[in-house]
Amino acid sequence: MSEPPSFPFSRVSGLEPPAEYAKLRSTEPVSKVKLWDGSLAWLAVQHKDVCAVATDERLSKIRTTPGFPELSAGGKAAAKNKPTFVDMDPPEHMKQRSMVEPFFTRQHVESLRPYIQKTVDELLDAMIAKGCEKPVDLVEKFALPVPSYIIYTILGVPFEDLGFLTEQNTVRTSGSSTASEAQIASNSLLVYIGKMVDQRMEDPKDDLISKLVVDEIKPDNIDRTDAVQIAFLLLVAGNATMVNMINLGVVTLLQHPSQLADLKAHSSLAPTFVEELCRYHTGSGLAMRRVAKADIELGGKQIKAGEGIIASNQSANRDEEVFPNPDKFDMYRKRWKEEALGFGFGPHRCIAEWLARAELEIVFSTLFQKLPNLRLAIPFEEIEYTPLDKDVGIVKLPVVW
């Protein structure tokens, strides 16, 4: 019997998902893989099985449970930190998640749209005013600031601190930073958020950190450490993903000029484009992991209590049984009953989904209206991508217009 393959798999190229997913979907949809430390875990690659994993309460999200599938030594170390709701099971999961959910409901996000639009407009206007005599890095000047400024505003971060926080977050998420540099940047952010929590204890305002202080810390529902960890999670969790999705959207449109022309002519197509973008490029494709609390059956395989499961939403988003011709980008794709899983599935579905959708929709209904001649300043093959064994993303994107 052959040894299970090593996981995570590497992408075929900068933009293409690992070839192993397509092969496994047709030959062995639930199979074993070997992780960095030699331990084994189950891998589910079909849409139906990924959804089953995401909704089965016999599976645990608690990362300190023996057998939980960590993907690196750093992940195993991070799992020892005090957990937030993303790494909790019921009922603690919903109890903590509900503390911040009001800031991310569809209704609340709708009220933020004018501010998001203003942020996008101002960043693009600043780029236009400065000109592009030399190529401009769209990551630095646009893709990174957009989601950063929005989440900082929700949290209540003073505008004069945006530069410092953006710099720390860039170091923390940059593929070129060393592990120690990234850790120092993370600690700087934690210290900063801790000071904000202390300030709101004395002088609450109308923001998310104040809500945690007034509604949760003061009545002793959570302690200060919990509040700091929750705010830190919201500050950093989706930022790298959002930055990458903006960059990936730009490159994808430039690769599909007829769909770009349609979007330029009809900016109202932005939601349709974003829907397909979040299927085609799964910005967060390694986060749906569980460990079995009891023996279960999945895809005809017997999984024992204590065994880890990785559910690949990246693979599910290219499942031929759900999305015909899945490797083709088509924003006019007919929507089927089953949905794409870019934002996850089930109770742990991304809390900031509506915020992410709003940001992406506003970005892509505005970017090519203001910069209709936007194009790469380098050949496509010279784009610098994230490491092939990590989530799909773009490190730098030199553009001119």
Automatic annotation (TrEMBL):
UniProt entry tagged with the keyword Ribonucleoprotein: no
Pfam families: p450
InterPro entries: Cyt_P450, Cyt_P450_B, Cyt_P450_CS, Cyt_P450_sf
Lineage: superkingdom: Eukaryota
UniProt entry keywords in alphabetical sequence: Heme, Iron, Metal-binding, Monooxygenase, Oxidoreductase
SUPFAM superfamilies recorded: Cytochrome P450
PANTHER family per UniProt: P450, PUTATIVE (EUROFUNG)-RELATED
Family the UniProt entry places it in: Belongs to the cytochrome P450 family.
Name used for this protein in its record: Cytochrome P450 55A3
